[in-house]
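Subject: two folds for Thursday's group meeting

Dear M.,

Sorry for the delay on this. The cluster queue was jammed most of the week, so I only got both jobs back this morning. I'm pasting them in the order they finished. Each block is the input sequence followed by the predicted structure tokens. Could you check whether the formatting survives your parser before we put anything on slides? The first protein is the one we discussed after the seminar.
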Amino acid sequence: MTFKSTPAPKYASDSFRNLLTLAFSWPEGKPRREIEVGMAYVQKGLRWIPSYKVTTVSSGKARVQLQATLVNELADLQDVTANLVVGVPTFAFKGTVDPMALQQTVAQLGGYFDPQSVSGYAMSNAIMSQVGAEDSRLREDNRRSNVAPDLGPEVESSEKDEDLFVFTVKRVTLKKGERMVLPVAEYELGYRDVYVLDLPFAPPMEVRANANDAQQREMARLLGAPHFTHVLRITNSGHEPLTTAPALISSGDRVLGQGLMTYTAPGADCDLALTTASDISVTKSDKETGRVPGALTVDGSSYLRVNLQGNIAITNRREQPVDIEVKRSVLGHAEAAGQLGKAEMVNAYEEGGAVTQPAWWGWYGWPGWWGAVNGVGQFTWKTRVEAGKKIALTYAWHYFWR
């Protein structure tokens, strides 16, 4: 820029803008020349994604290692202290602008604060809660390489604060756009090998008769050959909770599979799915044992009672005994379960809606009387099957129809 003459020392017109003024209370009664001022606020863009590595070191013992992936989309960090929170912090007024903020600036940035805005994540006054699954942005190519400090971050301490658990990591240096993986904690926890089987109820003939090809394939998949799932039932005997995160399972140097660790408080158990137990075979068979016309009358309507009996044959082809847990759900009324099993009716409106009802439930226009005379029954067994042995689990139930 070239000036033809000496520029004026002042602008031709005055401008006004809002300023934030700080008033200090001096303990000594005398103002200082310099003072340190800090500011705290809530901001998206810096988050951590937990993951576990579970290694079976001996029979009944597993080494559980927690590591954190730090994703920085906020600003350059230089030798900072990071608090990794296990839990779900609540910010009731995350979308409310503080009255002390500069309103003119806020008005200009209003689009950024909109949660529906494409760029809203960069300026939103909210915290990004931890997630157990991989974020979609993690699949993008990272153009920068991770640069860690010479000695790496240090996990100094962990402590419980109300309903949240915090791991403190010191000396974190991470530039905007970079990611870092660092170890957080390691435990040796006890576990048991348990084999679980969940048998859902079959759809009525009316559902199958009116289903399209895609729905037929989905029902065939859901009601295909049943199989046991081998899970590691881990007991959290430590002082820190286990959080929801993917878990890589290995035995020595061999990778066995990957499952999902769920939140587990100290003293509680969690099931970590390992693989399908192909050497424990199972066959289910149901048969009708009788019909009783006019067995129930409601509001002048007569209902037919259909009695059924089921059998679950289980064969253990392993070389050692196995502990099994079997759950069988039925439409109607659970009557009795053999082999020390438990028969009960579940809440078809709450538990049934969240757990028991399968994907095909909404494909059928259920009659209005169905829920009035029927429910959802459930049978459960917990037992042991010796090596090379076979057992049969029996149960009986009925439902009403008109």
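Second protein, same layout:
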Amino acid sequence: MKLHTIFLTSNVILNGLFISAANAADVAEVPAPKPSNTLSLEFSPEWKTSDGSVADDYLKFGYSHSFDNNIVWGAAFQYAWRPDSTSVDQLETSLGYKLKAGAFTFTPSALVGYGFGDHPNINHLAKTDAEAYYAFVLAADFKIDDHWTWNIVNARYRNAFDTTWITPKVSTGITYKFDSTNAIYANVGYAWKDAGDGKGLLGDKWNVVLGYKLSF
């Protein structure tokens, strides 16, 4: 009887050890959660399409949060300064949805913004005036591998609520991820403008962007 009891006790202990080891292995194999928050900082010079002169330079700070249902909310602040010593500030908030198809990701979004400063670059406004605006954006990206992503196109339609400020823009670029946290990106863009002055939609500016993203 004693030997039988010892044998049963040993089995229970060994089974407990195996189960504990298996549970520990399961815990160790659980992947780390994907980052859902991203901070970004980008710098860009912009040139006039009419004569190639500098239109302005800007710094843009951004934040976005990705929800589990693929909805993405974002906010941004942009400060631009011009050669004539005027400046423009823009505050924006956006809401989008990520659609994934293999290596492709499509993100339609809508945003509202508010421009203020010396001159928000809207035709009829005088200095210190401000203007609210809206935009619709479609981004298409292709993941080449774990590090490289081709930002195929980012297409924007933008207009002011109370006046004509039709400013569509298209850009294309590339993003390089060092790891799940750090990434750098670059793109080139071209914008048009219809300021409501009867001239219609004309080439306005082109720019080059360099940026950094921190995800957590």
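Two things I noticed about the second structure. Residues 2-29 form the longest helix (28 residues). The chain has a mean pLDDT of 87.

Cheers,
T.
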